[in-house]
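This section describes the prediction task in plain terms. A model, or a person checking by hand, is given the sequence of a single protein chain and must write out its three-dimensional structure as a string of tokens. No templates, partner chains or ligands are provided. The sample shown here is typical of the held-out split.
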Amino acid sequence: MSEGDGGENPRIADFSTHLSGPFASRILSDLGADVIKIENPRTGDGNRGLHPLVEGVGSMHLALSAGTRSIAVDRRSPHFETVVRAAIEWADAVIVGARPKDAERLGLDFHSVAKVKSDVVYCLISGYGESGPWQDFTAHGQTMDAMAGLVPIEWVDGAPTTPAGWRSSGTTLAGIYAALGTMYALYQKAKGVPGPLHVSVPVWGAAMAWSWRDLTCMANLGEPWTDYQDLGSRYSMYGTADHRALIVAPAEQKFWHEFCDIAGLTELHDRGSWDSGMDFGRGAAYEAERPVIARAIATRTLAEWTTALTASSVPFAPVLTLGEAMESEQAAALGVMRPTTVGGEPVTVPATPVRISTSAGAGEPPSVGPPPEIGEHTAEILSELGIGDLLGELGSR
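The expected answer:
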């Protein structure tokens, strides 16, 4: 990902707002990129004031902007285009989040950016892509998920609603795909592929890609992929003696034999289609086993099953709450949550689950800087861009 001028980390100019672009920038920042956010001086990138707040700042801003730098410049300033041009010239990659026509109106479309820097990597994250009848639709949050068939519906008193706990996925996935596409384009650039390079990521497309199993089956078989509860008795969720949920997945012959021994189900030990050459079976053909397995699982607590199955090779998982997962020893070992500060107060943010090191092993988790105040780095960034004399004339802080 380095640009070759001394091997420095890539420089990212992020003109996006809200979720997908900032998520992409946060990933790149965690991997070592120098990210500057170009924000308006009044509200910033749109996440800053969104509730719930953590130490007075929006939780989304905290999670998505930690470790980045901020320059604030008013679009009404006569020097706005000068700053935009300088940021593009400075950057190895530019991230824009907008409808194609809005990017063009703002002078942040691919052709306009490429005129400023001919070898730039340009990433446009849009709601519905750069072609087709939906390209000009206004995109917002879960709307792309809805049009990708991902929004579950429950009818309550005659009105549709989404189930409690449901979260949209398209906007986050688009950020992941944007970071992936940007990194590969930077790799191509480093290999000598001539620029400019255009990375296009529609949030709707990201949401559709998330349904890869269902899309494959729907396109070729006319029906979606099997629901989890229908996979079979040997790949299912059961209730323990203390009313906790446990997933057991002894689908292969060796795992099934071991599970039967642990669960005291020796009468089921040799039931399977192992002689057919298939060393795998989720138990769909043996649904009568489900209540038998359920009764066996219900005789022990989740802790007892965890102890017994941890000592085996049987695939299993206690179904944890989000809090239990976050506070687990595994989360601590992998650095899932990383410390930073807001206004001098200690807080934590989720870390990108990627480690790059020169030796075997996961490497040290990246440190995470605090989320910037609006325009906190305006003076230093203007100086880096070679236009420090404009400070005070931009309508920024």
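For orientation: The radius of gyration is 25 Å.
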